[in-house]
Structures are given as structure tokens and as C-alpha cells.
Amino acid sequence: MLDMDGSIKPPQISEMFQKFALSFRSKAFEFFSDEINNNNQKIDLIDCDEQDEEKMEIDDQSSLIDEKGKVIKNAQFNETLIISLFASISSFEASYLHLQTAHVPNFDQEAVNDADKSLISHLQTLSEFKQLYKNYYQNPNFNVEFSSGSCLEFQVNENQHKLRALKSVFNRLQADIDVKCEEVSGLRKEWEELSKVNSRLSKRLSFCCSKEEEKEEEKGCIEVLLTVRVFDRMLREAFSFSHKFTKVLVGLMKRAGWDLELAANSVYSGVDYVKKGHSRYALLSYVCLRMFQGFDLEGFGVGEVGSVCNGDISTLDSEEKRVSSLRQLKDHVSTNPMEMLRECPNCEFSRFCERKYQELIHPTMESSIFNELDQGEVVNSWKSLGVFYELFVKMASAVWALHKLAFCFDPHVGIFQVERGVDFSMVYMEDVTRRCTFPCKSRPKVGFTVVPGFKIGQTIIQSQVYLTGIN
Question: First-to-last CA distance in the chain?
Fold first, then answer.
């Protein structure tokens, strides 16, 4: 039988037979001893009544001899009978245990039939022992012989039945062990499968968490960057580099013998400059407006609309485009633009620089400026002139970064340019010379736009213009 913890409990019949055997053995010896004593007393009384005193002494001597032999014979018979009896009882117990194991855990019809036949055989043997015992003591002349071989035969049968019972228990335990091993094997396979699934889920969870953290980080960066103050500061930096580059360009033009007044008039004709040197604002306007041309396009007019350095974003939604622009901005500001052009000459920023240079410097103008320089200062192209090339790249880098920042806003930053001849408005415009004071006798007019203006939501970053008609 199985306990709650899975161990096998011996059948209760074993304990019952052990107690029965001990009790039966002690009672049997007492019974046989009493029977022998009673028989001896009966024999003595009969002999004393039928014979006289003289014969009695002789008969008593021979009777003692006979009775002594009979007592020895009875003792041998009792011992053999008891040993055989207990061997049969033990065999009966083993057969009964075999019958139990034939029912559990699986019913075995053949084993049940064998155990049933064995039990009936042992019961018949016990019944024969009982009848033999009665016949022996009821009829003193009953002749029965128990050989030592028959006693050993019963003991051998007892041991065989015990071995059979133990074998049945062993087989049942082995079957239970096999079942448990199969369960363990199945559970181990299930555990391995679960471990693999858990590993895949952990990787996916880790990947999702890293993606979420990256998105949160980018979101935090967007919240920090997407302010009017940051955009205005980057715009002023781009304008500062544009002003420095224009100064270098004007210097090269003067060395090449250019007439700056004539060059400014070719850019904006009919402008009434307040001072002679203000014609340089026209050249500054020329540089700035060329650099900001295509600012409202995602690709900045470098390639196809919607294309970026890392792939096509035309199919991305608005949020993904913002994140993509932010990543490009972070990558750009974290790298030196000069090193970027050297290491990645075919990148989008490199193409942007090439295109803007071609828009700014006409081939005729380029040949005029650089051919007039000393041969030691010119090697192959404009990139050979260190200061000129470096300032142009820094200006282009600042404008490029400002463009990426503009597309991080939702909606995107708008750009506008004031037409010539429009009345000055302090809301949308700022005097680039900072000489306009109010009240004025006459309303000033816009001569030309130097730096374009921007609209961020409901906020206006003023366009810098050169004013005419100021007294």
C-alpha cells in the first residue's frame, strides 16, 4: 500500500500473522505439554488399578521405559509439527502478499489466479495438520512419521514463497521507480522548454526595456532641446559663422580686385545705403539666404525629399521622423565636422556642403578669386585654403544642425523671408544695423532680408532686415 508521501507500507496482514504466530507457538507448547502430562497420569492410574503391588513395580519399570520413549517421540512429533505449521503459515502470508501485489498498482489476472491457488493449497495443508494432530492424540496407536526431509521441505517452501513475495514487492517498487523516472524525465524536458522560452522572453523583455529607456531618453532630450531659447541660440551661432565667412570672402574679393559696391548692386540693385560700407550687408544676405535655401524640406534639398542619411523616412510617421531627426542631430553635434568630411566624404552632410558651395561660389567667381592669389597659397581647389574652407564647413555645420533641430518640433519650425519695399514691423522684423529708433518721421522700408525669420508654434523669431528710408 502507498502512504501519502509515496512510500510503500507493508500489508497489515504481516503484522497480524507475526502476532498470531508468536501467540500460537507459545500456546501450542503449553497445550502439547499439558496433553503429555495428562496422558502419563491416565496411564499410571490404569496400571495401578489392574495390577497388584508386586507386578506393579516390574510394570512400572517397563512402563517408565515405554513412556520415556513415547515422550521423546511425542516431543519430536510436536517440534516437527510446529516447524511445519509455521512454515505453512509463513507461506500462506507470502501468498497473501503476492495476491495483494497482483491487485496494485495494475490488476494482473494471471498473478491473482496463481496467488489464489497457492492460498487454497496452504489452507488445505493447514487443515491436514489440524486433522493429523487430532488423530495422533485421540488414537495412541496412530502411527505417523515425520522425516527430517519433510520438515526441510516445508522450510524450503516457506523461503521460496517469501522470495516470491519479496520479488513481487521488488517488481512493484521497480515499476513505481520507472514511473517516477518517466515523470522526472518529462518534467525535466518541460523545464528545459520553459527555460528556453523564459530565456527568449527575457531577451525580448530586455530589448523592449532598452528600447523604452532609449525612447524615454530621447523624449527627455526632445523636451530639453525643443525650446525657443535653444533654437534662437543655435540660430545666432549660425549667423555668427555666416558673418565671419562673409568677411573672409569679402577680403578675398578685395584682393582679387573686385568692386564691392558693384558686386552688392548686382545682388540688390537700387538700394540706398546709409553708409558706404553697408554694401557688405548685401553680400551677407546673399550668403545667408543661399545657405537657408531649402530649409523647409526634410532633406534640405540635398537629395530626394524625405531622404535621410540612414535611410528613407518617407514611410515613417510624425513621431518617428522627429526621433530620427533628433538622432541625426545628436550624431552630428557629437562629431567634429571637419573629421566627418574626411572620414565620410560621401555622407549627406558632405553632399550638403558641396551643393551649398556651388550655390554660393559661381565657377567664374571661384576662378577669379583663387587665380589672383599667390601660387603658394593655392594648390588644387578652395579646400586648399585653410581659413576659408574651415569657416565654410563650420557655417554649413551650424545651419545643418539648426535644420535637424527644426524638424524635431511638432509641428516643424516654419521659415519666412520679408520682401523688399514692405513697411517695417517690429513684430516680424529686426534692424540688422540696430539704428532704427522710434518714433520716426517716415515709416522705414525693407531694403532686403539679411537673415530669414522663423515661426515656432505661436512664437516669432524676427527676421533681420536692412532698412531704407530712415532719417
Answer: 118
